[in-house]
Amino acid sequence: MPLHRLEPLLTAERVERLRATVDAARGLLDRRTVWNVNSTARGGGVAEMLHTLVAYAAGAGVDTRWLVVDGDPEFFAVTKRIHNRLHGVRGDDGRLDAGARATYDATLARQRDEVVDRVRPGDVVLLHDPQVAGLACHLRDRGAVVVWRCHVGQDDHNEWTREAWGFLRELVEPAQACVFSREAFAPDWVDRRWLRVIPPSLDPFSPKNADLRADEVEALVRRDGLVVEGAPLPTDGRVVLQVSRWDRLKDMGGVLAAFGEHVRLLPDDVHLVLAGPQTDGVADDPGAAEVLADCRDLWHALPPRARDRSHLVSVPMDDLDDNARVVNALQRWSTVVVQKSLAEGFGLTVTEPMWKGRPVVASAVGGIRDQVEDGVSGVLLDDPRDGAALVAALAPLLEDADRRREMGRAAHLRVRDHYLADRHLIQYAELFAQLVG
Ligand code: UDP
């Protein structure tokens, strides 16, 4: 994907800086490959971002590849536990003890050679998230330059985050540099000289974000089979949308419960749409089917007045571009987008609707606090568990089209100024220059 595609969106100064940085990086990385390694090719923010960044970097003439490490359910149960605990919650009853470590090591050991043998000494390897952190020492032994990028975390460390960091420390320490979406996510043992804060970005031209005509939006939203619970999506009225993986930390159930309890505070034509991926589509997200099933139960238990206006949507995952276009259409079709996460490293599901000029109401947690300026480019909710506060924030916004327009415009500019790929690529290029230069 050619980088110049981005140029019409950027100021002359940004274009110049991007060109200069990429030219320098191309020279520096000559005869080196930049590898990205993670544990899923689809579903979630990391895969979403890698599709774009790998394509842009390749388009800029940097040899960039992406490897996906596979795992069995036991492995993903352990990595989900780490994921939850990095977000400060226990998640399940299991421990991150020697047994968990043995499960983790066994899966990586099976695939280690496949990754390590492809990498040449001097190559740069970006390991994404806890699932692949355990490859760092083997890649260092191979002579690679290793960066571990952690996409999750939370500012306040507690017993659960400490347990997860205790598990990860030995795995991560061989990496020469660590990247976080927010500095406060990093545990204190990460060497501050080699810690970089690089927030994610989105691609305005991807199927997830590219402009859609009104008739395309209509056709995508009206697709047969999307709604798994509730009436067909409404043809008029106002729509509140949350798009997320079916993960407890996204609190889809909390949105539904808040709607059920406080629906009287909202105008009569307001509908709630909760959309997530088909639950058999994402290998590294154990528990998704259970979370969706719980939401379905909650939906059935809603008072009729709220149930008639709530819709659970399952977006097919067989064709990723198609999945992205449906999400794109839902975001464009909605009136206000919600992200009631209980914890969030960085929410692409916040940045995506902002790019589309949608006002968002989101929990003031993790990276979302950087993404949204409260009252300007969206509304932040201090207490992510407070359903009444969510509805109280939605009600005036749903009544005020001018405020929505203004907030949507500010939201779009916020993304343009901070969350496009040029900033992201420049930050990577600068880090690589420091590591290999
Ligand atoms: N997503 C999607 N289909 C769905 C649900 C989510 O494509 O049915 C995408 C969503 O648009 C976003 C990503 O998955 O690009 C989620 O990224 P985010 O950073 O919000 O959270 P994560 O899932 O990584 O925790």
Task: State the gist of this model.
The chain is of the alpha/beta class and 437 residues long.
Give your account of this protein's structure.
The protein has 16 helices and 13 strands. It is α/β, with parallel strands linked by helices and 437 residues long. The strands form 2 sheets. A 7-stranded mixed β-sheet has the order 7-10-9-8-11-12-13, sandwiched between helices. It has a 6-stranded parallel β-sheet with strand order 2-1-3-4-5-6. α3 (73-86) packs across α6, α8 packs parallel to α9 (288-301) and α12 (348-355) crosses α15 (401-418). Uridine-5'-diphosphate binds next to α2, β9, α11 and α12.
* Gyration radius over CA: 21 Å
**Number of helical elements:** 16
Order of helices and strands: HEHEHHEHEHEEHEEHEHHEHEHEHEHHH
The small molecules bound here are: uridine-5'-diphosphate
| Oligomer category | single chain
Lateral strand order in the biggest sheet: 7-10-9-8-11-12-13
Which regions contain 5 or more consecutive residues with pLDDT less than 50?
A: none
The overall average pLDDT, rounded, is: 96
Molecular shape = globular
For the sheet with most strands, the description reads: 7 strands, mixed
Helix content: 40-55%
Beta strands, count: 13
Structural class: alpha/beta
Strand content: 5-15%
Distance between the first and last residues' Cα: 26 Å
